[in-house]
Each structure stands twice: as C-alpha cells, then as structure tokens.
Amino acid sequence: MAFPTLLIHHLPTKFAELPGWVSWVVGRIILGFSVVIVITLVVFAATQILPSDPARVILGPEATLEAVETLRRQLGLDKPFIVQYASWIANVAVGDFGVSLDSGVRTAEIVGSRLDNSMALLLYVLAVTIPLSLWLGTVLAIHRDSKFDRTVMTSLILIKAIPSFVVGLALIMIFAVILLPVLPAVSLLDPTRPAFLQVSYLILPAATLILSVTPYLTRLVRSSVIEVLDSDYIAAARLRGLSEVVIIRRHVLPNALIPAIQGIALTARVLFGGVLVVEVVFSYPGLGDALNSAIQMRDLPVIQMIAMVTAIAVVLINLTADIFTVLLTPKLRTAHQPTLRPGTRAAIKMKAGL
Amino acid sequence: MSDDSDKPAVVSRLSVQKRGFLQERQIRVGLVIALLLVFFALLGPSFAPHSHEALVGQTYGEPSVKAWLGYDYLGRDVWSRVLSGGQSIIWMSVAASVIALVIGTSLGVAAGYLRHGFDRAVVWLTDVILAFPDLILVLLVVSMLGRDPWLIVLTVSIAFIPGVIRLSRGVTLGVAEQEFVEAARMMGYSRRRILVREILPNILTPLVIQFGIMLTWAVGILAGLSFLGYGVAPPAADWGLMINENTPGLMIQPWAVIAPIVLIALFALSTNLIAEGMTRVNAQTEGQ
Amino acid sequence: MRFLFSKNRIESNQADNQQSLSISRDATLVDVKNLRIERADGAVIVDDVSFSIKAGEIVGLVGESGSGKTTIATSLLGYVRKGAAIIDGEIIVSGMNIRKISAGGLKKIRGIFAGYVAQDPAMALNPLLRIRVLLSEMLETHLPDLSVRERAQRICEVVQEVGLPEEDSFLDRFPHQLSGGQQQRVLLALAFITRPNLIILDEPTTALDVTTQSHVLETIKKLCSRHHVAALYVSHDLAVVRDLVDRLIVLYAGRIVEMASGASFFDNPRHPYSHGLLAAIPDISHRKMLIPIPGHAPAPGQRVQGCGFANRCARQREICVSQVPALITDKESVAACFYPIDTKTPQSIRASIEKKTVHTLHPYRRQSLLEIRSFTAAYGARPVLFNVDMDLFKGSCTALVGESGSGKTTFARALVGLGADVGGRLVFDGSSLPIVAEDRSQDQRRRIQYVFQNPYRSLNPRRTVGKTLLDAIYHFHDITPAIARVRMLTTLEQVSLPPTIIGRYPRELSGGERQRIAIARALLSEPDVLICDEITSALDVSVQASILQLLQTLQSKGLTILFVTHDMAVVRAIADNVVVLKHGNVVESGPLKAVFDNPQSDYARELINQSPSLSKPNNSNRFVQGERI
Fold first, then answer.
1. ipTM score
2. Which residue of A103, C188, C190, C480 has the lowest C-beta tally within 10 Å?
3. The dihedral formed by the CA atoms of C222, C228, C229 and C235, expressed in degrees to the nearest 10
4. Preceding amide of A19 cis, omega within 30
5. pLDDT tens per residue, range A287-336
6. CB neighbour class for B145 (10 Å; exposed up to 12, middle 13-18, buried from 19)
7. What does the pLDDT read at residue A134?
C-alpha cells in the first residue's frame, strides 16, 4: 500500500521539474501505441475475413473435410475471434507471427531477410534523396522564378506525375535493354552477401524510387525556404549587414528544415508504397516483393507480419518526426505544454503536393 | 515590418480580382490534355477497328499498316485495345477522388468546427489509416475481397480520406477562428448555416487543389494495381492491365507496353498540371 | 569635400569605426536626392523625395500607411523589398552612393555606419537563435578584430545601455521568452552594438503598450544623445515623435508634403494635409472635436496627376489637379503646396475647434442598461478576469481601457456570448441575460451588437457586402426584400458609404470602408448596445477620426456604446465614463473628467502620464532633458 501512495505523492512534483516536452513525448508515445494496437486489430480482423481457409490452403484441395476440420481445431481456428486474437497478439508481441503457410519456414525468418534487403534499398534512396532535395530546394528558392527554377519545377511536375512502375520500366528499357545495356534489369541478389554491398543490383530500383520521391521533398524544401526568405527576421538580418552565406546557413536553413523533417516523414508512406511496386518491377527480393507473392499464395502469416511491420514503421517515423520538430523548435521545447499547431502537417503535405 | 504591406487603401476592382484559374498556362494545358483523353476513352471503342477481345494477329506481332501498334501476347490488336481501355482508369480515379473529397471534407470540417472529443477521435482514426501506405492498403483489401471495380474505388477513396480530413480540418480550424465566423455565431445563425455559408466557401480552394492531387495519385494507384495483376480482370481492355499482360514481351513488342504507359502518364500529368497550376494561382492570390 | 572625408575614414580605417565622434559634428550623413521607387508593375511607391540628415540629428519621417515611409527608410540601407526597385535619384550615405555601392561597402553601411530597428520585434528576431548568438554574430561580422574578451565586454555594455537585465542567463534566452518591450530592446542592442553613426527606427514602439513605449522612447533618446547618433524615426504617430525629433518630414502618397523643425510644425503646420492630420488626432490632454480628412489616401498605382492630396483638400483649385506643387521654403518650414496655410488660419480654426469641444460630454447617467456583476473568465486553467463589476448606462459611451493582457477583449467578447469558461451575472434592461450567445433569445442577441477589431477578418471574404448585410436584416426582421433593401441603403448612408458598395467583396474595400460595413451590419439589427473592440486601432488616424465621429453621432441618437481600447487619447475624445482594467481586475472607474483629471489609482495615473500628447510636454521628456547636448 505504501508504495503506490508514495508514487502518487511524488510523481506530480517530479513531473513538474521535467521540461514540458517530456510529458508531451510520453503522451505522444502512448497515443502512437494505441494506434499500433488498433492496427494489430485491423490486420488480424482483415485477414480473418479472407475467403480462403488457411487449413485448406495447407492441406491442399485433395484433403478430406475431416482432416481440414482437425487441422482447424489444431490451429485454433474454431475458437471465438477474441480468443484467437488474444493468442495471436501474445505471440506477435514477441515477434512470432507463426509459420509461413506456403514454405513452412518461420515467418520472422522470411520477413527478416527481406526486411534487410528493403532497408538497404531505402537507405540508398534516403542517402541520395535527402541531400539532393535539400540542396536543390534551397537553390531553387534562392533563384525563384528564374529560368532555372521554372525549368526544374516543370520537370519535377512531369516526373512526379508518372507512376513509379512506369519510371521503373522506362529505366529498364533505357539502361538494361535498349540503349545502354549496362545494368541488370532483374535484381538477382546473392543471398549470402549483404544486399547493401551489391550495388549494381540496387542502382536501378533506387533510382526509380529517388525519382518518385525527390520531387515532393524538393518542392517542400523550396517553398519553406521561400517562406523563411520572405520573413521579417531575414529582412532584418540583411539590414544588419550579415553576409548572404551566414544568412542562408545560420538563419534561413535551420528555420526551413524543421518543416522538412515532417516532410521526410510524410514521404515515408510514399516510399513504402513505391517499394512494393518497384521491387516487383525489378524482382528485387525485398518486403514488397515478398508481400506480392504472399498475397498471391494467400500466405496469411507473412501478409500479417509485413503489413504490421510497415504500419508500425510509419507510426514510428511520424512519432520521431514530431519529437524532432518539438526538440528543434525552441518555442515548443521550452513550452509548458507543447502543441503542434493543428493543421501543420496538412499544410506541409499541401506544400509538398502530396 | 513594412507600413505598406498592410495597406488599407482602396484598390480598384480589377487589380485585386483573383487571377482566374484559366489564365494559368499550366491549367489550360492540363485541361486540354485531360479533355482529349476523356474523349479518346469515351469515343475510342466506336472507332476501334477490331473488338478488343478478338484474336486477329499473331502473338507479339510487330506494328504494320494493318495494326498500327502491333499485336499483344494473345495476338489481339493493340490499337483497338488502347482505344477501348481508357474508360475504367478514368472513371475509377474520378469516382475515388470524388468519394474521398465528399466524405473526407464532411468529417474534416465537422472535426475542425466541433473540436473536442469528435475532433480527437477523427484525427486518431486518420492516424490508423495513414499508417498503411495507399497501395498496400488497397492491395490488401482487393486481394482479400476480390477485384470488383466499385470495391477498388471505395478502397482507394478510403486511402485518400485521411488526407482530405487532415486538410479540411486544418483549414476549417483556421477559418473558424476568424472574426466573421464569430460574428455569425454571435448573431445566432444556425450551425448548419455557419458551416454552409461562412466556412465552406472559404475552404474550397485548397480542397479543389487537393482533388487534383488525388486524381494524380488515384491514376498511379489504379495503374499500379493493374500492373500487379489486381485491377480490372482479363480479358477486359484496360491500360494498366495491358502493361501487366505484355511486360514479359517488352523486348519483342515494346509498343504493347509503351502505348498504355504513355496514355496513363499523360492522364496523370494532366491532372497534376491542373493541381499544380491551381496551387500557383492560389499562392499568388494569397500573396497579394 | 565632407563626403570624401568620411568615405576615406570608413574605408581606410574600419577597425576604428566605433569612434563615431570622429565625424565632424554637423557633417551630412545622409543626402537623398529626387528618389523614385517603383513596383515591378510600374506603380510609383515613392517619388521625387529629397532630404538630408546631419550628424546627431533626430529626424521624424511621418506618414499614414501606404505613404512609402518604410520604403524610404530601408532604401537608405540599399534595401528595397522584393518586387520594387529604385528607378531614379541619388542616395548618398556616408559619402557612398547606395545605388552604385559594392557588396563590401553595403555591408559597412548596414552594419557599421547605420543600425536598423524593425517595427514588430516578435517577427524581426530569428526564433531559433539565442540573444547572445544574435549579438555576437554582429560583432563577428562587423568587428572581427575584437578579442573574445572585448566582445563579451561590448555585449555587456550594450545590454546595459538598452536597459536589458545584465544576467548571463538572460543572454541565453530565446526571443519568444522575452516580453515585447525586451524584444524591442534586443533590436536596439543589435543596432547599437557596432556604435553606428546613424540609426533607422521603423515604428519601433507601435507594437508596444503605452508604458513600455514611453520607456523605450526614453532609451532611444538617451542612446542617441550619449553617442551623438543621428536617427531617422519612422512613425505614423505624430504624438510619439513630437518630443523626440529635431526635424519632421511629412509624407503623403509617396511624396514629401512638408518639412519643418519639430517645434514650428506643431505650432504652425503649413500644408493642408499636416493641418488636417493634427485636427484628426485625438489628444490626451484635452477633449477635442476630431475633424476627419474626407476620402482616403491613394495607394501606389492609383495616384493621380497633380497634388496627391488635392481631391481631399478643401483649398483645392484648378492648378492643384494639373501640376505637382514643388517644395517651397517659407520661414521655418518647407511645404509642397500652392496655397499653404498661413500663420493666422490655424489659430482661428483651432479656436473654433475649442469652441466645439466645450461640451459634448454626457452627464454621468444613472440608468443602467446592462449590469455586469462578478464577471469571471478563464482560458483553460488560467483565469483572465476576476469579479469584474460594471454598468453600461443608457445612451452613454463607456470606455474600457487596458494594456495587452488586461483581459479587455475577453471581457467584451464574453458580453456578446463569445467566451468559454465565463461566469457571473448579467442583467440587461431589467431581465437576466444568459452568458452564452446560443442560450440568449433572438431579441437579446439583436439588441447587443459587436464590432470586431480587425476589419480584414470580420467580413466573410466570399460574400458580397450586400449579402452580408441582408443576412443580418433577414435574420432579425421578418420583412419583404424591398423593405430590406431600403433599410440597407439607409444604413449605408448613415455610415457614409455609397449604395454601389453592395456589389463589392470585402477585399475590394479599404480598412475604413470595411469597418463601416461592420458597423452597418451591427446597426441593421437596430441594437441598443454597441460593443466596439479596438475598432480603430488598425486604421489610419484620419480614418479613425471619421469612425469616431460616426460613433458620436450614433450615440447622440440614443445608442449605448462600450468602447474597448488601449488608446487613452481616443478615450479622452469620445468617452463619458471610463473603466480601467489591469490583469483582469478593475482598478479604476468613473466619469471621464474625474478619472483623467484626478486618477485615484497609480496605474491609471501612469497610463495617462505616459501616453504621448500633441500639446502637453511628454512625461518621458523630463528624464533626458539633462543629457541632451
């Protein structure tokens, strides 16, 4: 009895000493966690209403009805939804999504290696896209409405409009088949070596994704740099005789980069969707390719795990972006109760044209 | 910092008149392309030399005078299939965007205006949906429930709704705190009237722009879905499906893939041009 | 020759720049000749402007919004905002021609020779940088030879000079952690830290409260006289500059209309516009009848041939609309007018003004129309109003005065039912009035109307003026369209607007016109009480006068008015009763004369004393008189 009372007595004062953002972060984590819980429910429920019967899939069409029923019982498929969900979630919580219905290998094993490959691809994409769009967006903003700006912006619009699988196919035709047959059209990764090192297989898929994401980020960076350039404090800094280099580096960029953080998080959703298609186009053995074949095979555990991994990744990325935004904005960091202005993210999305 | 920036001076009617959307070149170009494609898709079937299902040539036959774009993997006339295959992607992308716009705006405006519990619940719900990338969400649903066109349309719109909710909620919050809305509240105008007359007209522009953006996205998702083999079922003629069917023969008869690709890209480009143009006009008018 | 001298000094000897006194005492620092600045679309912002500033001189640059005063001020530093360009003329600053200057020269002008203080301190400071970083950045850029110790010492000095706390922890704060006054002092410190010869101040106190304003003005004066720094003080407020400046330049529609020494301008304004301005500005020291200038100032691109002021001028003749009057020196002042007002006229006019003011004052009426008792309000957990009691007397004008954060707007909004977390009791015309607008009867809502501070946001931008007005009529009155139209036109006439305005959208109207529409909307419901929340603070003084005049007319017809404001001079001009609010508490209330002539609370006394005046010596003056050389 003594301990909880002690806690109740001490928590508020302890909390009061902490900066306001700590309790905000705790709140955001709890909220993110609740979203994850609902995602598990959605994923589980959605896969439950699949028209196909997992037991039938495992045993094949020749099996007797009796055998199927027995397996259903063994798999716990006859129990009420809640019970099934509870036992499922208990396993999922420790990373156990069961055994692939298709290959019989542990789901975590399949997905794990595929995840590594997709991560390698995404890392390359981000390593190029982020610096590229920061640089290009800033340069365009500084030279806004110039011929250079208009040309680049128009080309970005053109690239942005083309679906990513079309970009992928076009790249295949150009670099792998017709014009310059230098790069492999199909990513036959050597599974014994880290995907990260097999650069030649990564170039075309990465280039496709870079082309599909860079326009959004560049536009966002451009418009937030323009917004800062037009602000009173930049005019004031100019009137204080600070050099243009100092103004851009110290005054403009830091202020413009904070919305870019949210923008990077927002493109995560685009990237994950793009990965699915691009991996299929190039037969790249990543998560997207795995999801595609799992769906064709109706391989429930694999589908569930990939859907969960993606969704949780998106939630985590958004959470991280929010935390960085608060920590990097003095006004929010020092506030008693930090609140991101409602509609901030919608505005950023709009600026990026997402 | 400038005394001139918030000038109250009377400006003549013409000079502040909003720049019309049609004056922006990007919008005009986009509209022309979009309309041409719509006509192409609508009237195409009646001009097709062959039925889109008829086997009239040899597998992957090369282009000739008889068949401008050659034959596909089954020996059907590509030109006829291109003429017949545009309708589904166009109506489906428009339908998905319209549904998302209507439902998303209703929920978003309600959340932004009513605030409190309802707002929090709606935003939380969008967080859940937004955790799934568009294409993955659609793929999951379609693979489970079948490839009925209306089901695809509904799922695509569900993927879009959170974005519309977030946007309309954000702008509604901005408009609702303006004094003219408070003035209406103070006068005792009904809630419905405030929503319809005071708030809605003032949030239309960003929503229209969002509509253009959604169209582009919908084209991408629907085409991607077809490409992965979950779109319209064969043997129907559909641009996305054609890409999927004929990709294996890319090296022998590329025109069966290139033709639908070009048309899809053009359609996405036209909607994107319109959305971009509207964003620009809007930024210019707001900058005044 | 003088230019050459100073040019050499700056270029050869930049490390020594802090010794500003080495410039000879009355050297010309700034010489502007025939300056013309246009927007990209060809609209003229500034035309044919010539003036000079001598070392140590404080020059006021005064004009209403759109007059081009900020544009001129920043052009001295070689800065015009995007979309504008200097088309013609010469700007010589410290012997260098700004239009032909090198990047290095411009850097020296901006950082070392001249400092700049912007209008809105909250917007003019980079939100991501600590005060210390901002200050040392200036030294690193402009005085790179200073050692780390000297730098720290200089920062310490300047912080002390501008009256900021000297603690180390203060320098580690971010801009948002400072009060508005402190932010403005940081801007002053940034401008003074390199010990410039000239400082350009762009409405530095407009965003501040009266008491803070007077302290900041005091600091500016002290700094200028101690370091013999010349200043160009840009302002729209004649009362503020009155005791500050040596010389005054009045701008109208992008041109100089009058230049005079401070003293002679206020005693003897020559240009009809100057004269009109002085008659339109309320004065805290006595109640006077405000005389508005008819019409409004033309925006860039709308300006006409001839004298820009001609169409608003009572003395206009034929020549005024065909030719631009040149600046003509006459006695102590220079005015651009074919028919300048001569010395005798102002006195006679002034006499007639005095006569009119004798008393429009209403007696302190006893019949209460709206009783407010134990009124409280809160924003979430933070209380804003504490047990406020107040009466609005039938047919009177009550002024509710307070500085920012006093809760005055919260109070006014709560009265019309626009507040959350409001408590207390309201009795309106004998019966109880619910707190929330939605709970009130239609008739109660009709009888109490509200006009918002910002005329740019109080009208639906997507509805024409006519629709907005008709909405209000039909909402409260069940009448036919024909009668509604007649009522609308009658009311428009009452607020001096032409009937053609009903087809317009708010964005096509000026601020003054919009505010009239807002008032017309309120009047159409035939209210008994009109609550006006700072309705003139976004408007120019000449427009303010016409709105205040309108309110007085309405009051004489029996309307009860609650006028919420921060401006004591306006209170003096229109109120019968005064209530002073501080941090959500009423600190003083009573009839106007009693409160102004014999304030009981320290706070009210301070507010009255610190408010700048057109006629009495300003309070802040006393502190600096001794230091001025």
1. 0.80
2. C480
3. 50
4. no
5. 888 888 888 887 888 888 888 888 888 889 988 988 888 888 888 888 77
6. middle
7. 93
Minimal CA–CA distance to B260: which of B242, B244, B274? B242
Comparing alpha-carbon positions, the chain B residue that sits nearest to A311 is: B131
* Maximum distance among all Cα pairs of chain A, rounded to whole angstroms: 86
A-chain residues near B273 (CB < 8 A): 157, 161
Q: What percent of chain C has pLDDT over 70?
A: 90
Indicate whether A11 pLDDT > 60: no
Quote the tokens at residue A161: 């409009």
- Distances, alpha carbon A315 to alpha carbons A27, A333, B133, C293, in Å: 14, 22, 11, 61
Residue in this structure with the two tokens 């640059």, named with its chain if needed? C61
Question: Is residue B16 pLDDT above 80, yes or no?
Answer: no
CA distance A120 to A198: 10
Q: Measured at the alpha carbon of residue C515, what is the angle toward residues C513 and C518, in degrees to the nearest 5?
A: 115
Q: Which residues of chain B does C498 touch, with a Cβ-Cβ cutoff of 8 Å?
A: none
Q: Is the pLDDT of residue C2 over 70?
A: no
Q: Average of pLDDT values for C356-382?
A: 72
Find the chain B residues whose C-beta atoms sit closer than 8 A to any C-beta of C.
1-4, 6-13, 15-16, 178-180, 182-189, 197-198, 201-202
Q: For residue C443, what is the enclosing H or E element?
A: helix C442-447
Using an 8 Å Cβ cutoff, are C541 and C490 in contact?
A: no
Does residue B184 contact residue B194 with C-beta atoms inside 8 Å? yes
Measure CB to CB from residue B265 to each of A162, A276, A307 and give the nearest one. Answer: A162
- Inter-residue contact B252 to B70 (CB < 8 Å): no
Question: Measured between alpha carbons, how far is C27 from C56 in angstroms, rounded to an integer?
Answer: 9
Report how far residue C543's alpha carbon sits from residue C548's, in angstroms, rounded to the nearest whole number.
9
Strands C44-54 vs C28-39: parallel, antiparallel or unpaired = antiparallel
The residue to which tokens 């035709």 are assigned:
A173
Which ranges of B115-148 does DSSP label H, i.e. alpha helix?
Answer: 116-130, 134-145
How far is it, in rounded angstroms, from Cα C459 to Cα C514? 8
- Residue pLDDT, tens place only, C606-629: 888 888 888 765 544 333 333 332
Please name every residue paired with C333 in a beta bridge, in sequence order, or none if there are none.
Answer: C260, C330
Could you give phi then psi for residue C231, rounded to 5 degrees? -140, 145
- For chain B, positions 128-167, list CB contacts with chain A under 8 A: 128, 130-136, 139-141, 143-146, 163, 166-167
For residue B142 the two structure tokens come to 């379609």
Tell me the C-alpha distance between C580 and A43, whole Å.
Answer: 62
Closest listed residue to residue C292, CA positions, set C612, C541, C40: C541
Q: Over 70: is that where the pLDDT of C10 sits?
A: no
Distance from C-alpha of C190 to C-alpha of C124, rounded to nearest angstrom: 11
Q: Determine the distance in angstroms separating the CA of B192 from the nearest CA of chain C, rounded to an integer.
A: 14
Check: pTM over 0.90? Answer yes or no.
no
Separation CA C270–CA A125 (nearest Å): 71
Average pLDDT, chain B: 81
pLDDT at C209: 85
Interatomic CA distance for residues C286 and B41, integer angstroms: 79
Specify whether the CB–CB gap between C401 and C571 falls below 8 A.
yes
Closest CA to A159 of A168, A148, A146: A168
Task: List the single best residue of C457, C473, C476, C510 to mutate versus B (max B Cβ within 10 A).
Answer: C457
CB contact under 8 A, A241 and C107: yes
Task: Please check whether residue B230 is in contact with residue B139, taking contact to mean a CB–CB distance below 8 angstroms.
Answer: yes
